[in-house]
Design a protein that fits this description.
By secondary structure, this protein is α+β, with helices and mostly antiparallel strands. The chain is 28% helix and 20% strand. Helix 5 runs antiparallel to helix 6 and helix 12 packs antiparallel against helix 13. This is tRNA (guanine(37)-N1)-methyltransferase.
């Protein structure tokens, strides 16, 4: 076979068309041409006429939608998968994300909807799961989006499916009378034949003709249909949500099939609904969503695995599998908190993605740059963490008072700061406005409790609402809990009763130094084995109260000295050495063996540490002249 030296006319046409389109695009996209709509190579549609030499170019502008991918064409390549920087924004929902609009308190959730054009395989429902497992690598595989989508209205009972099958068979065999009779039954006109309507068709006709007088014959229906007073608001919300143009908030995504209006087929709207106008029904089907890189591609451009599935589905010249075009819409509920905040905040600003959870309260520590957007940030945090989070607060000032309470500003949700926290299987009722709580120390508290035994007696000098004291009461023999804040002591007593540990805990409300001296001056001092001082800002300064606590007791009476766990902050370059020096100075002792560990980094260059040591005998039995006078 001799190959022709001249190029194929169709190949020449495609080459000429592509080259000309590129030339026109470069010409129109010069800087001195100001256009009111975004342009890209996909914006031009080439319509060749019958003559190869003449080509008509038409420039189309998508006025009803904005392509986000075109807006970010000059930026770095976008990652694989769904993104707010990809897809198309539906009409009437696009807003410029400048700083002035971002500072508003209201959040337009509709502006975060994105539309993606994809391709899908319409397959029989009975084969969808087998084909999904087979074509797993070629499907969409997006997070929180199922690869299998249902076709709206394409769910038919088996009895109705048999009727449709017999209808098609009778039409092909020429049995016109039975087919006509069956058609009258399907479309609700069977009463003329003397046959009763089916229950489904009778119910549909009754619903269409039902009015206020119909309740006369259905007394019980009138009682059931009357809405309750408490649910009137829910009924109004559902009615408003079904209006045209409203976004359904109960879904992450919606898949719609782009049907061909010129498709030939029988009209099945009377049986299956308006979705089946002009489409021949071949049974219940499902949609297998293909990867987005196969969008707008024909069957020849699909992978061989997909082509093999088409060949296997061919029967009598027709295939039970169909390639269709779909529209995938991802709503505001689909996107994660970080993706929404990254789109809202100015470019380059750090996204406040972490927060402390205290019961139903989200505790933020926003930076100065985040304050103009604090309402928007709180709204997103609340929406993306419901129903667990119901209140979002921000700390507006550092802790300066003796009670260690924080000044909080409620940014979103309800204004109740009273909540219940579950930790180590125990429940703690707290009020963040009047007491101190830090959920980030839960791991440290668990580590501390793991060192206690059932023979220990614990003295908690700064107990707060009792996260350590109450948890230790389930392990040890006895607990003495103290705090200076009367509100914290009130919640401590409530939590003790709430967890049924009132027999093992004794509560005090006094200054920490006075509590140490009075407790160790009593007979209880002989049984105390563990002392916890969890007040990192000032706990080391209270260690001088241990000097001479056994000074008036014989040394033979003391069998074991208590182990002290003291917490503190340090900003020094060597935080362990710095904290050790402060402990040594407070005890007025040169040689103190301390086991030190870093708990966590609370701020840049600021460490929280825990020091554990046995009280030195020379400190405990030191003679102090003013000891009895202070008590």
């Amino acid at each position: 076979m001799i190959k022709s030296p001249f190029p194929n006319p169709s190949t020449l046409l495609r080459t000429t068309t592509a080259a000309t389109a590129e030339m026109v695009a470069k010409f129109l996209l010069k800087p001195y041409h100001r256009l009111s709509f975004p342009l890209s190579p996909s914006t031009f549609r080439l319509t060749p006429h019958s003559k190869p030499s003449s080509v008509l170019f038409t420039i189309t502008s998508r006025a009803a939608a904005t392509d986000i991918t075109q807006l970010h064409a000059a930026a770095a390549p976008l990652p694989y998968g769904p993104s707010l920087q990809k897809g198309t924004i539906p009409s009437q929902s696009f807003k410029d994300s400048d700083q002035e609009e971002a500072c508003e308190d209201s959040l337009d959730e509709a502006s975060f909807a994105r539309v993606f054009g994809i391709s899908a395989l319409r397959v029989p429902a009975k084969d969808c799961f087998a084909l999904e497992s087979r074509l797993r690598g070629h499907l969409l595989n997006w997070p929180r989006v199922c690869n299998v989508a249902r076709v709206p209205g394409d769910e038919v009972e088996d009895d109705v499916a048999e009727l449709i099958g017999s209808r098609n068979e009778s039409r092909e065999s020429g049995e016109g009378e039975e087919c006509e009779k069956l058609g009258r039954r399907i479309y609700g006109r069977a009463e003329g034949d003397g046959e009763r309507l089916s229950g489904v068709l009778y119910r549909e006709r009754l619903a269409e003709t039902f009015n206020s007088r119909g309740f006369v014959n259905f007394r019980n229906l009138a009682k059931i249909s009357r809405p309750k007073k408490g649910k009137k608001r829910e009924v109004n919300e559902k009615r408003d949500g079904n209006r045209e143009g409203s976004v359904k908030r109960n879904k992450f995504s919606v898949v719609e099939v782009i049907e061909d209006e010129e498709r030939e087929g029988e009209d099945l709207r009377g049986l299956l609904g308006d979705e089946f106008k002009g489409r021949r029904w071949r049974g219940s089907t499902r949609l297998l969503l293909l990867d987005d890189r196969y969008a707008e591609k024909c069957l020849e451009d699909l992978p061989e695995a997909v082509k093999a599935v088409f060949k296997e589905g061919e029967r009598d010249g027709t295939s039970s599998i169909e390639l269709v075009s779909c529209i995938l819409t991802l709503f505001y509920d689909y996107w994660s908190m970080n993706e929404i905040l990254e789109a809202l905040l100015p470019k380059g600003m750090i996204v406040p993605s972490s927060f402390e959870t205290v019961g139903h309260i989200a505790h933020l520590n926003l930076r100065e740059e985040h304050l103009p957007y604090k309402k928007l940030i709180a709204k997103v945090v609340l929406d993306k963490n419901k129903p667990k989070i119901q209140t979002v607060v921000n700390k507006i000032d550092m802790i300066h008072n003796d009670y260690r309470t924080m000044q909080l500003e409620v940014l979103a949700g309800n204004h109740s700061l009273v909540t219940t926290v579950v930790e180590n299987g125990l429940r703690f009722s707290i009020d963040l406005a009047t007491v101190y709580w830090n959920s980030r120390l839960a791991t440290e508290r668990q580590r501390l409790l793991s060192g206690f035994t059932r023979n220990d007696v614990v003295c908690d000098v700064f107990c707060g609402v009792g996260p350590i004291a109450i948890s230790a009461a389930k392990i040890v023999k006895r607990v003495y809990a103290n705090d200076l804040n009367p509100q914290a002591v009130e919640y401590l007593e409530k939590n003790i009763v709430l967890n049924k540990l009132d027999r093992k805990i004794q509560v005090f409300n006094m200054d920490g130094r006075r509590f140490i001296k009075s407790l160790f001056a009593s007979e209880k001092a002989l049984s105390i084995t563990q002392v916890v001082m969890n007040l990192p800002n000032d706990a080391a300064e209270y260690l001088d109260a241990f000097r001479g606590i056994y000074g008036d007791k014989p040394k033979g009476m003391i069998h074991a000295l208590p182990v002290i766990h003291v917490y503190g902050f340090s900003k020094a370059g060597d935080p362990e050495f710095d904290f050790h020096e402060r402990i040594r100075i407070a005890l007025s002792e040169v040689a103190v063996q301390v086991e030190m560990r870093r708990v966590r980094l609370v701020a840049p260059g600021k460490w929280m540490l825990c020091a554990m040591f046995t009280l030195p005998r020379i400190v405990a039995f030191a003679r102090t002249t003013a000891f009895k006078d202070q008590i």
